[in-house]
Amino acid sequence: MKYKLLGRSGLKVSELCLGTMGFGTEAGWGADAATSFDIMDAYANAGGNFLDTANMYKLGTSEKIIGDYLSNQDRDYFVLATKYTLKDNTTNPNASGNNRKNMMRSVERSLKRLKTDFLDILYLHIWDDITPVDEVLRAMDDLIRQGKINYAAISDTPAWVVAKGNTLAELMGWSQFVALQIEYSLLARTPERELIPMAKHFGITVTPWAPLAGGALTGKYLRGEKGRIKPESNRLNERSESITKVVVDIAEELGVSPGNVALQWTRQQGFSCIPIIGATKVDQFIDNLKTIDVTLSDDQLKRLDEASAIQLGFPGDFFKEEAVRNNSFGGFYDRVEKR
User: Fold this and answer.
1) pLDDT in tens, 260-313
2) Which end of the chain has the smaller Cβ count within 10 Å, N or C?
Protein backbone atom coordinates (compact mmCIF):
# COMPACT_ATOMS: atom_id res chain seq x y z
CA MET A 1 0.00 0.00 0.00
CA LYS A 2 1.25 3.46 -0.90
CA TYR A 3 0.38 6.62 1.03
CA LYS A 4 -1.09 9.90 -0.17
CA LEU A 5 -1.48 13.30 1.41
CA LEU A 6 -5.06 14.06 2.42
CA GLY A 7 -6.13 17.33 0.83
CA ARG A 8 -3.98 20.36 1.57
CA SER A 9 -2.49 18.76 4.67
CA GLY A 10 0.56 16.76 5.62
CA LEU A 11 -1.53 13.81 6.82
CA LYS A 12 -0.43 10.54 5.17
CA VAL A 13 -3.23 8.07 4.48
CA SER A 14 -3.25 4.80 2.55
CA GLU A 15 -4.45 4.82 -1.05
CA LEU A 16 -7.54 2.78 -0.16
CA CYS A 17 -9.80 3.62 2.80
CA LEU A 18 -11.56 0.92 4.84
CA GLY A 19 -15.26 1.64 5.22
CA THR A 20 -16.81 0.11 8.32
CA MET A 21 -20.54 0.72 7.89
CA GLY A 22 -21.00 -3.07 7.85
CA PHE A 23 -19.28 -3.67 11.20
CA GLY A 24 -22.07 -5.01 13.39
CA THR A 25 -25.08 -7.24 12.72
CA GLU A 26 -27.95 -4.86 13.43
CA ALA A 27 -30.74 -4.77 10.82
CA GLY A 28 -30.04 -8.38 9.91
CA TRP A 29 -26.82 -7.90 7.96
CA GLY A 30 -23.16 -7.11 8.52
CA ALA A 31 -20.00 -8.59 10.02
CA ASP A 32 -19.74 -9.71 13.62
CA ALA A 33 -16.91 -8.49 15.82
CA ALA A 34 -14.58 -11.40 15.05
CA THR A 35 -14.98 -11.01 11.28
CA SER A 36 -14.57 -7.24 11.57
CA PHE A 37 -11.30 -7.79 13.45
CA ASP A 38 -10.10 -10.13 10.68
CA ILE A 39 -10.92 -7.52 8.03
CA MET A 40 -9.03 -4.82 9.91
CA ASP A 41 -6.09 -7.19 10.35
CA ALA A 42 -6.01 -7.90 6.60
CA TYR A 43 -6.13 -4.18 5.90
CA ALA A 44 -3.36 -3.30 8.35
CA ASN A 45 -1.18 -6.17 7.12
CA ALA A 46 -1.49 -4.75 3.59
CA GLY A 47 -0.28 -1.36 4.86
CA GLY A 48 -3.71 0.24 5.23
CA ASN A 49 -4.15 2.87 7.94
CA PHE A 50 -7.29 4.88 6.99
CA LEU A 51 -10.48 3.81 8.84
CA ASP A 52 -13.86 5.39 8.12
CA THR A 53 -16.88 5.11 10.41
CA ALA A 54 -19.76 7.25 11.74
CA ASN A 55 -21.67 7.74 14.96
CA MET A 56 -24.77 6.08 13.50
CA TYR A 57 -23.21 3.11 11.69
CA LYS A 58 -24.98 0.09 13.13
CA LEU A 59 -26.39 2.32 15.88
CA GLY A 60 -22.90 2.94 17.25
CA THR A 61 -21.72 -0.69 17.08
CA SER A 62 -19.24 0.05 14.30
CA GLU A 63 -17.43 2.57 16.50
CA LYS A 64 -17.51 0.17 19.45
CA ILE A 65 -15.94 -2.65 17.41
CA ILE A 66 -13.22 -0.33 16.13
CA GLY A 67 -12.60 0.92 19.67
CA ASP A 68 -12.18 -2.64 20.95
CA TYR A 69 -9.81 -3.42 18.09
CA LEU A 70 -7.68 -0.30 18.56
CA SER A 71 -7.34 -1.04 22.27
CA ASN A 72 -4.88 -3.78 21.31
CA GLN A 73 -3.18 -1.92 18.44
CA ASP A 74 -0.89 1.05 17.91
CA ARG A 75 -3.49 3.83 17.92
CA ASP A 76 -1.13 6.32 16.28
CA TYR A 77 -0.62 4.05 13.28
CA PHE A 78 -4.25 4.43 12.27
CA VAL A 79 -5.94 7.50 10.82
CA LEU A 80 -9.42 7.33 12.30
CA ALA A 81 -12.32 9.23 10.72
CA THR A 82 -15.86 9.41 12.03
CA LYS A 83 -18.91 11.58 11.34
CA TYR A 84 -21.60 13.50 13.15
CA THR A 85 -25.02 14.83 12.10
CA LEU A 86 -27.51 11.97 12.17
CA LYS A 87 -29.82 11.43 15.13
CA ASP A 88 -28.41 8.96 17.65
CA ASN A 89 -30.88 9.41 20.52
CA THR A 90 -34.28 10.96 21.28
CA THR A 91 -33.37 12.90 24.39
CA ASN A 92 -33.49 16.39 22.87
CA PRO A 93 -34.25 18.29 19.64
CA ASN A 94 -30.53 18.99 19.16
CA ALA A 95 -29.54 15.33 19.01
CA SER A 96 -29.20 15.68 15.24
CA GLY A 97 -28.17 18.25 12.66
CA ASN A 98 -25.00 20.18 11.94
CA ASN A 99 -25.25 22.61 14.88
CA ARG A 100 -22.40 23.16 17.32
CA LYS A 101 -24.27 21.64 20.27
CA ASN A 102 -24.85 18.37 18.44
CA MET A 103 -21.27 18.32 17.14
CA MET A 104 -19.76 18.66 20.60
CA ARG A 105 -22.15 16.12 22.13
CA SER A 106 -21.67 13.63 19.31
CA VAL A 107 -17.87 13.86 19.37
CA GLU A 108 -17.77 13.11 23.11
CA ARG A 109 -19.95 10.03 22.61
CA SER A 110 -17.84 8.85 19.66
CA LEU A 111 -14.63 9.24 21.67
CA LYS A 112 -16.08 6.98 24.37
CA ARG A 113 -17.24 4.31 21.91
CA LEU A 114 -13.91 4.41 20.06
CA LYS A 115 -11.95 4.33 23.34
CA THR A 116 -9.62 7.09 22.20
CA ASP A 117 -8.69 10.61 23.28
CA PHE A 118 -8.79 12.09 19.79
CA LEU A 119 -10.20 11.68 16.30
CA ASP A 120 -7.93 12.17 13.33
CA ILE A 121 -10.75 13.37 11.07
CA LEU A 122 -14.28 14.56 11.80
CA TYR A 123 -16.72 14.68 8.90
CA LEU A 124 -19.94 16.62 8.81
CA HIS A 125 -22.08 13.69 7.60
CA ILE A 126 -24.99 15.28 5.74
CA TRP A 127 -25.77 18.95 5.16
CA ASP A 128 -28.91 19.94 7.09
CA ASP A 129 -29.59 23.18 5.13
CA ILE A 130 -30.18 24.95 8.45
CA THR A 131 -26.89 25.53 10.26
CA PRO A 132 -24.63 28.36 8.99
CA VAL A 133 -21.42 26.89 7.58
CA ASP A 134 -19.35 29.35 9.62
CA GLU A 135 -20.85 27.85 12.80
CA VAL A 136 -19.71 24.41 11.63
CA LEU A 137 -16.17 25.47 10.77
CA ARG A 138 -15.65 27.56 13.90
CA ALA A 139 -16.82 24.62 16.06
CA MET A 140 -14.54 22.17 14.22
CA ASP A 141 -11.65 24.59 14.59
CA ASP A 142 -12.32 24.79 18.32
CA LEU A 143 -12.22 20.98 18.56
CA ILE A 144 -8.91 21.02 16.70
CA ARG A 145 -7.49 23.61 19.10
CA GLN A 146 -8.71 21.44 22.01
CA GLY A 147 -6.87 18.42 20.56
CA LYS A 148 -10.02 16.34 20.21
CA ILE A 149 -9.83 16.20 16.40
CA ASN A 150 -6.93 16.79 14.03
CA TYR A 151 -8.66 17.64 10.73
CA ALA A 152 -12.04 18.82 9.47
CA ALA A 153 -13.89 17.17 6.59
CA ILE A 154 -17.34 17.19 5.01
CA SER A 155 -19.70 14.74 3.32
CA ASP A 156 -22.85 14.83 1.19
CA THR A 157 -23.01 18.62 0.93
CA PRO A 158 -23.61 20.98 -2.04
CA ALA A 159 -20.49 22.31 -3.75
CA TRP A 160 -21.37 25.96 -3.06
CA VAL A 161 -21.56 25.29 0.70
CA VAL A 162 -18.14 23.62 0.78
CA ALA A 163 -16.65 26.39 -1.33
CA LYS A 164 -18.11 29.09 0.91
CA GLY A 165 -16.89 27.24 3.99
CA ASN A 166 -13.30 26.86 2.86
CA THR A 167 -13.18 30.46 1.67
CA LEU A 168 -14.43 31.68 5.06
CA ALA A 169 -11.96 29.41 6.84
CA GLU A 170 -9.06 30.79 4.82
CA LEU A 171 -10.18 34.35 5.57
CA MET A 172 -10.67 33.74 9.30
CA GLY A 173 -7.62 31.53 9.86
CA TRP A 174 -9.70 28.45 10.71
CA SER A 175 -8.89 24.89 9.68
CA GLN A 176 -10.27 24.10 6.23
CA PHE A 177 -12.00 20.95 4.99
CA VAL A 178 -9.34 18.54 3.72
CA ALA A 179 -11.63 15.75 2.46
CA LEU A 180 -15.00 15.49 0.71
CA GLN A 181 -16.98 12.26 0.97
CA ILE A 182 -19.58 11.78 -1.77
CA GLU A 183 -21.17 9.01 -3.79
CA TYR A 184 -19.10 8.52 -6.93
CA SER A 185 -18.80 5.57 -9.28
CA LEU A 186 -19.29 4.56 -12.90
CA LEU A 187 -23.01 4.50 -12.13
CA ALA A 188 -23.02 7.81 -10.25
CA ARG A 189 -20.98 10.44 -12.11
CA THR A 190 -23.08 13.53 -11.36
CA PRO A 191 -20.41 14.91 -8.93
CA GLU A 192 -18.39 15.72 -12.08
CA ARG A 193 -20.74 18.67 -12.66
CA GLU A 194 -19.86 20.78 -9.61
CA LEU A 195 -18.46 18.83 -6.64
CA ILE A 196 -15.32 17.38 -8.20
CA PRO A 197 -14.25 20.60 -10.00
CA MET A 198 -14.74 22.42 -6.71
CA ALA A 199 -12.65 19.83 -4.83
CA LYS A 200 -9.85 20.11 -7.41
CA HIS A 201 -9.82 23.90 -7.07
CA PHE A 202 -9.53 23.84 -3.28
CA GLY A 203 -7.12 20.88 -3.17
CA ILE A 204 -9.64 18.70 -1.32
CA THR A 205 -9.26 14.92 -1.54
CA VAL A 206 -12.42 13.11 -2.67
CA THR A 207 -13.24 9.94 -0.72
CA PRO A 208 -16.05 8.25 -2.70
CA TRP A 209 -18.57 6.08 -0.91
CA ALA A 210 -20.28 3.27 -2.84
CA PRO A 211 -17.54 3.18 -5.53
CA LEU A 212 -18.88 -0.28 -6.45
CA ALA A 213 -22.49 0.98 -6.46
CA GLY A 214 -23.60 -1.36 -3.73
CA GLY A 215 -21.94 -4.30 -5.46
CA ALA A 216 -23.67 -3.72 -8.80
CA LEU A 217 -20.34 -3.07 -10.54
CA THR A 218 -18.94 -6.42 -9.39
CA GLY A 219 -21.32 -8.05 -11.86
CA LYS A 220 -23.19 -10.01 -9.22
CA TYR A 221 -26.59 -8.85 -10.39
CA LEU A 222 -25.75 -9.87 -13.95
CA ARG A 223 -25.09 -13.32 -12.51
CA GLY A 224 -28.50 -13.35 -10.86
CA GLU A 225 -27.31 -12.90 -7.31
CA LYS A 226 -29.61 -11.13 -4.89
CA GLY A 227 -28.71 -8.24 -2.61
CA ARG A 228 -30.15 -5.45 -0.47
CA ILE A 229 -30.71 -3.09 -3.42
CA LYS A 230 -34.35 -2.24 -4.08
CA PRO A 231 -35.72 -3.37 -7.46
CA GLU A 232 -36.46 0.23 -8.49
CA SER A 233 -32.87 1.35 -7.84
CA ASN A 234 -30.96 2.96 -10.71
CA ARG A 235 -28.24 0.41 -9.99
CA LEU A 236 -30.43 -2.29 -11.52
CA ASN A 237 -31.70 -0.65 -14.70
CA GLU A 238 -30.73 -1.19 -18.34
CA ARG A 239 -28.09 1.54 -18.26
CA SER A 240 -26.35 0.12 -15.20
CA GLU A 241 -26.31 -3.33 -16.76
CA SER A 242 -24.71 -2.06 -19.96
CA ILE A 243 -22.01 -0.22 -17.98
CA THR A 244 -21.35 -3.27 -15.82
CA LYS A 245 -20.93 -5.46 -18.90
CA VAL A 246 -18.09 -3.20 -20.08
CA VAL A 247 -16.50 -3.44 -16.62
CA VAL A 248 -16.74 -7.24 -16.75
CA ASP A 249 -15.23 -7.37 -20.26
CA ILE A 250 -12.23 -5.26 -19.21
CA ALA A 251 -11.78 -7.34 -16.05
CA GLU A 252 -11.54 -10.47 -18.21
CA GLU A 253 -8.94 -8.78 -20.41
CA LEU A 254 -6.81 -7.92 -17.37
CA GLY A 255 -7.39 -11.13 -15.48
CA VAL A 256 -8.75 -9.30 -12.43
CA SER A 257 -12.15 -8.97 -10.78
CA PRO A 258 -14.76 -6.47 -12.03
CA GLY A 259 -14.59 -4.78 -8.64
CA ASN A 260 -10.90 -4.04 -9.17
CA VAL A 261 -11.69 -2.36 -12.50
CA ALA A 262 -14.51 -0.25 -11.08
CA LEU A 263 -12.42 0.87 -8.09
CA GLN A 264 -9.38 1.66 -10.21
CA TRP A 265 -11.50 3.78 -12.56
CA THR A 266 -12.20 6.19 -9.69
CA ARG A 267 -8.45 6.40 -8.98
CA GLN A 268 -7.52 7.37 -12.54
CA GLN A 269 -9.84 10.35 -13.03
CA GLY A 270 -7.25 13.10 -12.69
CA PHE A 271 -8.01 14.33 -9.17
CA SER A 272 -7.01 13.30 -5.65
CA CYS A 273 -9.24 10.32 -4.90
CA ILE A 274 -9.18 7.65 -2.19
CA PRO A 275 -12.13 5.25 -2.61
CA ILE A 276 -13.78 3.83 0.48
CA ILE A 277 -14.04 0.06 0.28
CA GLY A 278 -16.32 -1.74 2.68
CA ALA A 279 -16.74 -5.44 3.22
CA THR A 280 -18.47 -7.91 5.49
CA LYS A 281 -16.39 -10.89 4.34
CA VAL A 282 -12.61 -11.24 4.52
CA ASP A 283 -12.15 -12.86 1.09
CA GLN A 284 -14.29 -10.15 -0.49
CA PHE A 285 -12.16 -7.46 1.10
CA ILE A 286 -8.83 -9.09 0.18
CA ASP A 287 -9.93 -9.13 -3.46
CA ASN A 288 -10.70 -5.40 -3.29
CA LEU A 289 -7.19 -4.75 -1.97
CA LYS A 290 -5.77 -6.10 -5.25
CA THR A 291 -6.97 -2.89 -6.90
CA ILE A 292 -3.69 -1.18 -6.04
CA ASP A 293 -1.90 -3.44 -8.56
CA VAL A 294 -4.30 -2.65 -11.44
CA THR A 295 -3.72 -0.02 -14.14
CA LEU A 296 -6.28 0.79 -16.83
CA SER A 297 -5.05 1.68 -20.30
CA ASP A 298 -6.17 4.81 -22.13
CA ASP A 299 -8.35 2.66 -24.38
CA GLN A 300 -9.99 0.93 -21.41
CA LEU A 301 -10.61 4.27 -19.71
CA LYS A 302 -12.16 5.58 -22.90
CA ARG A 303 -14.51 2.60 -23.18
CA LEU A 304 -15.61 2.99 -19.58
CA ASP A 305 -16.08 6.74 -20.03
CA GLU A 306 -18.17 6.30 -23.17
CA ALA A 307 -20.35 3.64 -21.57
CA SER A 308 -21.04 5.69 -18.43
CA ALA A 309 -20.95 9.26 -19.77
CA ILE A 310 -23.48 11.76 -18.44
CA GLN A 311 -24.55 15.18 -19.63
CA LEU A 312 -22.77 17.80 -17.58
CA GLY A 313 -25.58 20.27 -18.16
CA PHE A 314 -25.10 24.02 -17.81
CA PRO A 315 -22.51 25.44 -17.45
CA GLY A 316 -20.24 22.41 -17.98
CA ASP A 317 -21.46 21.49 -21.46
CA PHE A 318 -21.67 25.17 -22.43
CA PHE A 319 -18.01 25.80 -21.59
CA LYS A 320 -16.93 22.64 -23.35
CA GLU A 321 -18.89 23.40 -26.51
CA GLU A 322 -18.01 27.09 -26.78
CA ALA A 323 -14.34 26.86 -25.84
CA VAL A 324 -13.39 23.63 -27.54
CA ARG A 325 -15.73 23.18 -30.50
CA ASN A 326 -15.80 26.83 -31.59
CA ASN A 327 -12.22 27.55 -30.48
CA SER A 328 -13.55 30.74 -28.90
CA PHE A 329 -10.25 31.63 -27.29
CA GLY A 330 -8.28 31.69 -30.52
CA GLY A 331 -6.42 28.48 -29.74
CA PHE A 332 -5.16 29.75 -26.38
CA TYR A 333 -7.50 27.44 -24.46
CA ASP A 334 -5.97 24.35 -26.05
CA ARG A 335 -2.44 25.44 -25.16
CA VAL A 336 -3.15 25.99 -21.45
CA GLU A 337 -2.57 23.01 -19.20
CA LYS A 338 -5.78 22.21 -17.33
CA ARG A 339 -5.78 21.75 -13.58
Assistant:
1) 999 999 999 999 999 999 989 999 999 999 999 999 999 999 999 999 999 999
2) C
> 323: which DSSP letter?
I
For the chain, give every residue range classified as CATH 3.20.20.100.
Answer: 3-310
| 281: Cα separation from own chain's centroid | 20
Of 111, 102, 45, nearest to 282 (Cα)? Answer: 45
Helix, strand, or coil here: 84? Answer: strand
Active-site option among 57, 69, 151, 221: 57
**What sign does the dihedral 128-131-132-136 (CA atoms) show?**
negative
Say which residues have a Cβ less than 8 Å from residue 146's Cβ, sequence separation at least 6.
none
Q: Which residues pair with 147 in a beta bridge?
A: none
Phi, psi (degrees; rounded to nearest 5) at 20: -120, 25
Q: Catalytic annotation on 221?
A: no
Per-residue pLDDT tens digits for 146-189:
999 999 999 999 999 999 999 999 999 999 999 999 999 999 99
CA–CA separation, 148 vs 107, rounded Å? 8
Q: Residue 206: helix, strand or coil by DSSP?
A: strand
Name the residue among 37, 7, 146, 140 with its Cα closest to residue 85.
Answer: 140
Run of H or E including 39: helix 33-45
Q: Is 338's pLDDT higher than 60?
A: no
User: How far apart, in whole angstroms, are the C-alpha atoms of residue 176 and residue 163?
Assistant: 10
Q: Is the dihedral of CA 15, 20, 22, 25 positive or negative?
A: positive
